[in-house]
Amino acid sequence: MKKNLLLIHGWNYRNYTSMTDEDDAWHNRKHFVDLLEEDFNIYKLNLPGFCGEKEPDKKYFTLDDFADYINDYIQKNNIPVDYVLGYSFGGPVAITWKNKYPSKVKLILVSPAIIRNQDKSKKFVKTPRVLKPFRDFVRDLYLIYYVKNNEMRYGTKFLRNTYQEIVRKDVTDELEKIDPNEVCIIYGTLDKMVKPYKLQEKVNQDYKKRIAFIENGGHDIANSHPEEIISDIKKFYKELK
Fold it and tell me: CATH number of the domain at 3-115+170-236, please?
């Protein structure tokens, strides 16, 4: 009997509602999802602001807000979840959800953005509270027009604010609160968007055993190496079927 798998997609500006007519944030990884369906009953959702999903009446979302959003989806749809797969940014969302709503659900983290560079924001730490709106305004202009950061450039105000809220959130400590036997982590050896080897250096020995590396894979290993991801998942969780 197939088990139930909930997919949490990553942060891709091409899937912003203003940038696409697609209604499925996994449309660009269809073959990977098709392979997963051989072993799982698949459930998918779009995060707020992506692929037509309505944005909340809030300035921005935190990781806790995303965790609540995921849990509300599970509860409203009465899904008996066995596994949650978080891709890229979906990884820290899945980690935050599991810690906030403890269960025996197993996590599959593919190219997860767990380690972040928090040093980039240190120069803003001493900014007086009254100047924060001006600081944020200047920062956004810099990222949009000088750096040409597409996540900022094409985002709504909600998406831009959310991106800035979560982009430097390191969740390594949160990861290690979870039983390593309930986590499977898969990276490509050539992934330059996240820091797989730094994570391996930082986590304890039990977690080191839960990290698999796909040779010559980049960040988008779901498209370049989908069969190898499935194989690694099965190695970690032999009871899939």
Answer: 3.40.50.1820
